[in-house]
Each structure stands twice: as C-alpha cells, then as structure tokens.
Amino acid sequence: MMNKSVEARALTIRRGRRTVIDSLDLDVPRGAIVGLLGPSGSGKTTLMRAIVGVQIVAGGRVQVLGRPAGSADLRHRVGYMTQSASIYEDLSVRANLRYFARVQGAPKADVDRVLERTDLIGQADQLARTLSGGQANRVSLAAAMLGSPDLLVLDEPTVGLDPVLRNDLWDLFRGLAEEGTTLLVSSHVMDEATRCDRLLLMREGAIIADTTPHDLLAGTGAASAEEAFLDIIEKDTAGERPAGHGRQSGTHLLSRDVNGKGRPSHDRRGHGTKKGGRR
Q1: What is the mean pLDDT of the chain?
Q2: Residues 215-226: pLDDT tens digits?
Q3: What is the model's pTM?
Q4: Do residues 181 and 152 lie in contact, with contact meaning Cβ atoms separated by under 8 Å?
Q5: b/e 235-246 (16+ beta carbons within 10 angstroms → b)
Q6: Which of 44, 110, 167, 243 has the least CB density, counted as fewest CB within 10 Å?
Q7: C-alpha dihedral sign at 218, 222, 228, 232
Q8: In which order are the strands placed within the sheet that holds 151-155?
C-alpha cells in the first residue's frame, strides 16, 4: 500500500437482489489525479462511497491509506465532496467553513486558506442560500479541503460550472496533486479525461478501461477522449476490447506509473456522512 492511496480487492456491492459492483479490483496511486469516468448509473458514486467508508459492501475489502475504508483515523486524512452541495443555507460561506473546521479539528487559519484556493473570498460573507449552484459546489469543495487531507474524493465537482471556472478548478487540482495530494475525481464529461494522470472507465459496475490519456487515444486511434470512450463502450458491448483494456471483474489491473509518462445529512466524521465534507 505504500505507493497506493486506495486498494480494493474483490469489492462486491448489492442493492437488494441486484449486484451493483461485482468483485472489482482497483488501485489508486498516491499523488495522482485519477479520473473515474462513465455514464450516469455506471456505479461511480457507489464506488466512491465504498472508498470513503459510507457504503455497505457485500464482499471484498477496501484499503485507504493503509487502513480499512471508514476507519476513524482516516477522518482527518480523507476529504469527500458529494455530487450535491450540502451546506447550511442560513449561514454565510465563512460561517459554514468555520463550523466544518471546528468539527474536523482543522486550524482556524485553514478557513482563509481554502477560501482563497477555491476563489471564494468575494463570497465569504454571503449567505449560502444566495449562492449560485457552482458557488455552492465550491463551498463543499472548500470544506473537503480543510485540514489538507491526503486523499480527496470528489464526485462530479465541476458540474454546473462554466468553462472558465472548470478550468480554474482543474488548475487547482493539478496544484494539489503536485503538493502530494491524491485526487479521485468522477465525471461524465469526457473531455475532462485529458486533465487526469490516470483514467478508469466504468460501465455497469465494472471497470472496462484502466489507462492514461495518452494510451487511451493511442490504443483506440480516436481523435478525442469522448470518441475513445464510445469506441471502448461499443467494443465492450460487443464483447471485444482493445489491447490493454478489459472488463474487470476479480482480475487485478496493473497500475501505471503516473510520475513517468440544501441541507447536510447527519453522517459526517463519526456523526454520519456529511456531504461535501470529510470522512
């Protein structure tokens, strides 16, 4: 686990009688931006919930930073941002972050740090209910960044953002990775794939590609990431897969060396999961 932030083996998750994820193996290397991409309903959020330890699993194991997922000592080391922003609407942005910092035991000065890094200084004293959807998402991201966690699990963090803000966020993600933070970022926007070090493509609860942006395009001969993913999905549907790709179910996929080429629900940090916050 020394070079891995996340390691999953034979992970199986069921909902009722339906198997959502079936015997999945996964490695996420440290200090990398790993994109988890796939159509809506492919299992991305369920996998992320398993990694942060808030998803009931039917079998297998998930290790995060060398500890079982959901361990109490990971709460200061893993930041989690869910798809829907969850902040206290009757508090200002700054008051929200001060509250989350107290809950997490983060230094008071961290509030100003994350406000600046997420470009929210101008909205710091604005009530959360007056924020745009994109601004509210950035408050959730700022909350997840409090305490400088080793691993950030971000579920579609750029949804609802205009192209300029999306670009700014990806620049922020790159800066965090260069400082040693590992980021697992989900998206169904395929053009964001090229901003990642490593790519995992999910479909129907399985990983059907584990690759890099360069190898994705080279292996499929496609001109864009979207075309490449469509090609892989079509081949997966037909039972054919390009070299280097394969429907993964219980078979370990080799890791690549990426350094070479509303209202919160009370489920946060031991009190239940808090959307947009830390586990």
Answers
A1: 85
A2: 999 999 998 888
A3: 0.84
A4: yes
A5: ebeeeeebebbb
A6: 243
A7: negative
A8: 78-81, 151-155, 182-187, 33-37, 198-203, 206-211
Kind plus residue range of the DSSP H or E element containing 10? strand 4-15
Structure tokens at 261: 């080429």
Q: Are strands 59-64 and 67-68 parallel, antiparallel or unpaired?
A: antiparallel
> Of 64, 55, 151, 143, which is closest to residue 104 (Cα–Cα)?
143
Q: Are 82 and 153 in contact (CB under 8 A)?
A: no
- Asked if 138 and 131 count as a contact pair (C-beta separation under 8 A), the reply is no
Give the ranges where the chain is alpha helix by DSSP (H): 44-52, 93-104, 109-117, 133-145, 163-178, 213-220, 225-238
The answer to whether residues 172 and 185 touch, using CB atoms and an 8 Å cutoff, is no
Let me know: does 151 contact 182? Beta carbons within 8 Å. Answer: yes
Task: Name the one residue in this structure whose structure tokens are 């999306």.
Answer: 166
Structure tokens given for 245: 């790709």
Contact in structure between 146 and 97 (CB atoms under 8 Å): yes
The helix-helix angle for 163-178 and 133-145 (nearest 10°) equals 10
